């Protein structure tokens, strides 16, 4: 990796800057004085929405586009995913290979947002960075292969940073369990759907906290090994009720709680790819699964953490789920 010079403006290429985690990381890097490039197939439109970034016309599926955008970059944030989980099997690995190739040529560090999907029940309930990765779902298998390829690339001189976190929520978290399962975007919260079994704890990750963690690690890049993995603790929903209680405090009343209709997903999966993916993740809601952050705290000193009431209110506001009267309280 090329060293990050204090005297020169640092450069990051973000793939997936219009998405949740990619957008948050890009804006935080720009706010810290980085030159942030963002590759997008509709660069002009994206630049109108987010002028603080340097938008470059191109496609993450094009090796030439990625390599061109990565020239002189210290970091490549690989946060790009096919929308709605469509064609994951065909698109995810080729896009990653393009980032690896660009990093190999230019000397950038690849930064990947990771998930808990890599793991299967054989390692539950407590997961460390070194826990065996034996996924039970297709998406998890792809995630494992992504990390395997990155680790192999690191052995050939490409520096890699992976930050794994729980289920995303927060402003910009589009295809998330919070927005697709718990509440209905664009509608006032009168009820909350509970995906987990009663009494089962769950791990969440607030997007701004994940982005802040990643940026802090990126800026400590010279202290990292060539292949680094960290787990975030995020928000631990003890007993599966704390998130619902926080939603109730945000809306000013306790919402009705209903069980998530898992039975419906297999029936609709042939027609809605998202339902198929959600159905495969059910095993993570049946038992408490927790990634520990001891390694992260030992390195950074602390894990960035927004108070849950503030995080939930910001999330519901972004989803247009709060009435004007509630927002003024």
Automatic annotation (TrEMBL):
UniProt domain NAD-dependent epimerase/dehydratase: residue ranges: 12-223
GO molecular function list: aldehyde dehydrogenase (NAD+) activity
Any one cellular-component term (Gene Ontology): cytoplasm
Highest taxon of source: Bacteria
PANTHER family assigned to the protein according to its UniProt record, in alphabetical order: NAD(P)-BINDING DOMAIN-CONTAINING PROTEIN-RELATED, PROTEIN YEEZ
Name of the protein this chain belongs to: NAD-dependent epimerase/dehydratase family protein
């Amino acid at each position: 990796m090329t060293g990050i010079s204090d005297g020169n403006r640092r450069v990051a290429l973000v793939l997936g800057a219009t998405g949740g985690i990619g957008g948050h990381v890009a804006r935080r890097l720009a706010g810290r004085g980085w030159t942030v490039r963002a590759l997008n197939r509709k660069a002009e439109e994206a630049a109108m929405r987010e002028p603080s970034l340097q938008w470059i016309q191109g496609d993450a599926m094009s090796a030439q586009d990625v390599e061109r955008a990565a020239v002189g970059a210290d970091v490549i944030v690989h946060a790009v995913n096919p929308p709605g989980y469509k064609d994951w099997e065909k698109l995810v690995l080729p896009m990653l290979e393009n980032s690896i190739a660009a990093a190999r040529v230019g000397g950038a560090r690849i930064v990947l947002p990771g998930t808990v999907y890599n793991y299967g029940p054989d390692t539950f309930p407590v997961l460390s960075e070194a826990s065996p990765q034996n996924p039970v779902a297709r998406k998890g298998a792809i995630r494992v292969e992504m990390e395997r390829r990155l680790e192999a690339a690191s052995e050939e001189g490409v520096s890699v940073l992976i930050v794994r976190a729980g289920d995303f929520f927060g402003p910009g978290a589009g295809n998330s369990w919070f927005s697709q399962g718990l509440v209905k975007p664009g509608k006032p919260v009168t009820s909350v759907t509970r995906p987990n079994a009663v009494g089962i704890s769950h791990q969440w990750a607030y997007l701004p906290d994940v982005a802040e963690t990643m940026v802090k690690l990126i800026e400590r890049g010279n202290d990292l090994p060539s292949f680094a993995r960290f787990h975030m603790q995020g928000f631990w929903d003890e007993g599966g009720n704390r998130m619902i209680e926080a939603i109730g405090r945000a809306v000013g009343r306790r919402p009705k709680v209903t069980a998530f209709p898992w039975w419906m997903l297999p029936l609709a999966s042939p027609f809605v790819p998202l339902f198929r993916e959600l159905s495969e993740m059910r095993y993570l809601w049946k038992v408490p699964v927790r990634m520990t952050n001891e390694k992260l705290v030992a390195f950074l000193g602390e894990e960035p953490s927004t108070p849950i009431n503030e995080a939930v209110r910001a999330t519901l506001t972004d989803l247009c789920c709060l009435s004007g009267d509630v927002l003024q309280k």
